[in-house]
Every structure is written in C-alpha cells, then in structure tokens.
Write a structure and sequence with these properties.
heterodimer, A: alpha/beta, Rossmann fold, 2 domains, seven-stranded parallel sheet, 8 helices, about 25% helix, B: alpha/beta, nine-stranded mixed sheet, two-stranded antiparallel ribbon, about 30% helix, disordered N terminus, electron transport (chain A), transport (chain A), ETF_a/FixB (chain A), Electron transfer flavoprotein subunit alpha (chain A)
Chain lengths: ~300, ~270
C-alpha cells in the first residue's frame, strides 16, 4: 500500500526527528513517499531523501506553503491523495491544523495521535488524556493519520531516494501569514530532548523559573512547564507539557513543583526515568515518579544543580 | 463615516456567532474503562461542557458584549442529555440553542466528521459570520471538528487561538503552535478553534441559570439535516494504559544524585 508522509518542514528545513519518527510508523503501513512542502524546500527534500526506508520524495516548492497555512496545505494533500491509501504526518501543531481539513475534503475521518500501528487499517491511540487506549479500525478508503512521535523510534539515515518536484495546488487566499513569535533557544527541542526539566505552579514566579532553567542547562536538557505554570505566566505556552501541550518521553524527566494533574501526566508518563521534587508528599506526581524527593524546591534545586 | 454607509456596515458586521458545545465526562472525574473493553464508563458519571467549548462560549459572549456580534447560538450534537450542556451555554449568556439528537446511548460518540457535516448544515441555515469551537474534546482528544467544518464550508480557519481580533472583513488570530505563537489574518466568515489561554470563562450566576430555562432550545435530529452519522472508525477495544509503578522516596539531594548515577540517567 502506498503511504504519503507529510514531512514537518519549518523555515525551509526538515524537522528530522519528528519526520523520522513518523516515518517509522508510516513504514508499518506501506511503501512511503515523503512530501516536503515549503517556500524553498529543496534542502528539506534532500534531507528527507536520506532517511532510511523512503521510496521517493516529493517537493512542492511554492510561496503558499512557506508558513504552513492550513488551507493551501490541505489542498495540496488532496491534489496528491489519489495515489495513496494513507496520508501520515507527525502529530505536530502544524499537522493537527492541516490533516483534519484534508480529511474532511476527502470525506474520511482523521485518526489523531496514533501511538501504535496494529496493521494498515488498525491503530491504537490514547483517549481521555491517556487514561485509556483505544484501538480503532478504519473503514475509510483512505486513512489520514497523525502520529504521536514520542512512542516511535526515529528511522535512521542511509537512504537515497529520488526527489521529484510536484506542482503546487493553488492558493485560494483565505488566510495570510502575519508573524511568528518563536523563542530562540540554544537548548534542545522539547519533544526530542533526552532530558527534560519541568517546573510547575510551585515555582511561584517567572523570575524563579530561572532555577529550573539553570538545572536544565546543567543537564543539557529542554525546559518544560505544567499548564498551571503557563497559565500563571511563569513560562511561555510552547513549554507546556501535557494533554493539550507537548507530549514528551525523554530518558530523564525532572518534575519540580508539579503536583501531577492527570492533564500533565498524559504528556510525560512515558518518560524512562521520572524524578519528582515537591514539598507536598501527597502530590500525585510521586505515584509515577521513580525517584521522589520531598523537599522545598528553592533549597533542593540549587543544591542539585551544584552537585550534578 | 460617510452617512448612508453605516446601516450597511452594521447589517453586515453585526454577525451571528455559532458555538458548538460537547457534553463530556467532567474534567475532574477519574476515567474508568469498562470491563468489556467497549469504552469508558459514562453511566452515572458527572458530565460537563467540554472545557475548551466553555472558552469558545465565553469568547462569543464577549464579542456580543463588545458589539461585534448580535446573537450567540449554541449547538450540541449527541444524546438528548446534551440539553443540559446547552442550558449551561445559555446560562453563560448564549441567546438560543439547537440540540441535534444523533444517538440514544450515552456511550456512542459522534465522530468529528459527522459532527462537522451536521454543523455545516446548520451553518447553511443560520448563516453565522463566525464559528467558535473548542480546539479538542477532552474525551476522544481528536482535535478535528473545527478544521473539518472549515473545510466543508470552504472557509478560512484559525486553529488553536490564544488571541482573536475581528476587524471588518478579516480576523487576526494568534495561534499556539509548537515553536511559540503564530499570527495569521483570515478572511471572514471563518472557523476559529480556541486554545486554553484565550480567556477565562465566567461562571453562570443563579439568576442567569433561571433565565436560561426560558431561552429557546430547538430540538432536531441528525436525520433532519440529512447527515449519516454512522462511524467510520470501529472501536476494536479500549484498555487501561500500562500503569506506572511508584518508585522510591529518597531522603536527600545526595541520595537522589547517587540513585540517578546508579541508574545511568546522568
């Protein structure tokens, strides 16, 4: 069966980690063609061609695709859909914007946030913030699937697929890009980092979040936050880990001043080792932590940063 | 403003806002998977309005209060009991409600595609200038209905909005995206799906809850709109996720560092 994998392309560059993880899932559904769309996406297409197990790369190079606007991107997917039984993408905010639109245009359901591929028509996905896992079997002619990248290993390199240009599918001009406010950071990217240090409401202020950041930098970690911390303005929205934020599964997750609401656990409980530091010994986070330290974070975190 | 233009302008821009709301298991209730694996137990469980939909209702009411909308219509598609969810929307300040009964069993979830098709039929009838929807329902976590509706209507979409500013024929939407925030300008009419930080929804006051009982609530069926709501996805099984075992409590930072070294984590 033929699978079209929509690569994650940001600023003309391939997001290798997200795309390579979705590729692993896509390969379980059939023969994979990768689609790179962007304004000047040749570099992304070449990078995608190197991924192991890619049969072909399509490059849709057009200004309309430069900022990932859902309307032209969905139209592009629909224009190519005839040749494929599956359209797959990593479950990024970009793909979550585009795939349901394409699915509706094709009169099929979207299957979001797939965590396991049972067979080409059957998928596991978390529901209720990960409190249940549902296995669903699609009866649609085409399967439009977004993949929860934290549950798949990244495909390696070593491929040498041919890159083919494809025609743009037009732009109805329903929306236009105004600006991106993207935080510049030297830290690893949250969803692919090997270590994540997250702060919660217990951190108490935006200033004191520096404690979390110092520990993160010591561990070469990405910084995360609970919804409570983001809602309180201690941390920016793109740091949020949880059901409606990012889903992470690093080798080490350090939760500081985080009580462990279901919503947050949904975003981090697949981490290999979880450390929790919280002064409340009853905090639910301790029920999922491998190592718990009941302590005042303002004393324990600087001490930990120093001793690592 | 040139005289004579104002009435046209008013007529065109004092728009109707449609807000779809979903009845879901309450945010604070612990979810239990049914023993037969058919789904999550929803019998005798506290149900509430999907939290994202509350934010959408709040935003619609604020638009009305700001003079940018003239009427707020709440819609729910599901079981008869969703009437309670609509009454909540009315108590918050929606003007009227439409209930589309599409299932008898509270355990039957209507898929986003079927919901979007039903909503399209309602949009064709009601002609709103804006649909404000929650970005996802906290039960199926599908995150799809708004985008699908926008596609079926051929409208623009502004998904995961944390700010919304409607200005004449356009809306400026700030969207929560993976790297931070993205601002786009969309043509009206549009479908906007709302994220957590757009606003803080109000509580309905007791007098407003009483008043809401008298507000109009139309009852329809999916068949009235000619929509086939049969699912495209067959639920094969529903299981509990693998439970994570609690580990150990360490007594000091030194002990924590030692344990992490032992585990090869650092």
């Amino acid at each position: 069966m033929a699978v079209l994998l929509l690569a994650e392309v940001a600023g003309g560059e391939l997001s290798v980690d997200a795309t390579a993880k979705a590729l692993t899932a896509a390969k379980a559904m059939g023969d994979v063609t990768v689609l790179c769309a962007g304004a000047g996406c040749g570099g992304a297409a070449e990078a995608a061609a190197k991924l192991d197990g890619v049969s072909k790369v399509l490059c849709a190079d057009d200004a309309a695709y430069g900022n990932g606007l859902a309307e032209p991107m969905a139209d592009l997917l629909v224009s190519l859909a005839g040749d494929y039984e599956h359209i797959v993408a990593p479950a990024t905010s970009s793909a979550k914007n585009i795939l349901p639109r394409a699915a509706a245009l094709l009169d099929v359901m979207v299957i979001s946030d797939v965590s396991a591929v049972v067979d080409a028509n059957t998928f596991e996905r978390p529901i209720y913030a990960g409190n249940a896992i549902q296995t669903v079997k699609s009866s649609d002619a085409k399967k439009i699937v977004s993949v929860r990248t934290s549950t798949f290993d990244a495909a390696g390199e070593g491929g040498s697929a041919a890159v083919e240009a494809v025609a743009a599918a037009g732009n109805a001009g329903l929306s236009e890009w105004v600006e991106d406010k993207v935080a510049e950071s030297d830290r690893p990217e949250l969803t692919s980092a090997g270590v994540v240090v997250s702060g919660g409401r217990g951190v108490g202020s935006e200033e004191d979040f520096a404690l979390i950041e110092k520990l993160a930098d010591k561990l070469n970690a990405a910084v995360g936050a609970s919804r409570a911390a983001v809602d309180s303005g201690y941390a920016p929205n793109d740091w949020q880990v949880g059901q409606t934020g990012k889903v992470v599964a690093p080798d080490l997750y350090v939760a500081i001043g985080i009580s462990g609401a279901i919503q947050h656990l949904a975003g981090m409980k697949d981490s290999k080792i979880i450390v929790a530091i919280n002064k409340d010994e009853e905090a639910p986070i301790f029920q999922v932590a491998d190592y718990g330290l009941v302590a005042d974070l303002f004393a324990a975190v600087p001490e930990l940063t120093e001793k690592l | 403003m040139v005289s004579g233009v104002a009435p046209d302008f008013e007529e065109k821009h004092a728009m109707k806002v449609l807000v779809p709301v979903k009845r879901v298991i309450d945010y604070n209730v612990k979810v239990r998977v049914k023993a037969d694996g058919s789904g999550v137990d929803l019998a005798n469980v506290k149900m509430s309005m999907n939290p994202f939909d509350e934010i959408a209702v709040e935003q619609a009411i604020r638009l009305k209060e700001a003079g940018k909308a003239e009427e707020v219509v709440a819609v729910s598609i599901g079981v008869k009991q969703a009437q309670e969810t609509l009454r909540t929307a009315l108590a918050m300040g929606a003007d009227r409600a439409i209930l589309v009964i599409a299932a008898d069993d509270v355990h039957q979830d209507i898929e986003p595609l079927a919901v979007a098709k039903t909503l399209k039929a309602i949009v064709d009838e009601e002609q709103p200038g804006l649909v404000l929807a929650g970005k996802q329902a906290i039960d199926n976590d599908m995150n799809a209905t708004g985008q699908m509706l926008s596609a079926l209507l051929g409208w623009s979409q502004g998904a995961f909005a944390s700010e919304l500013d409607i200005d004449g024929d356009n809306a400026v939407v700030t969207r929560e995206v993976d790297g931070g925030l993205q601002t786009i300008k969309v043509k009206m009419p549009t479908v906007v799906t709302v994220d957590l930080r757009l606003n803080e929804p109000r509580y309905a006051s007791l007098p407003n809850i009483m008043k809401a009982k008298k507000k109009p609530l139309d009852e329809k069926t999916a068949a009235d709109y000619g929509v086939d709501v049969s699912p495209r996805l067959e639920i094969v099984s529903t299981t509990e996720p693998e439970a994570r075992k609690a580990g150990e409590i360490v007594g000091s930072v030194d002990e924590l560092v030692a344990k992490l070294k032992e585990a090869g984590a650092i």
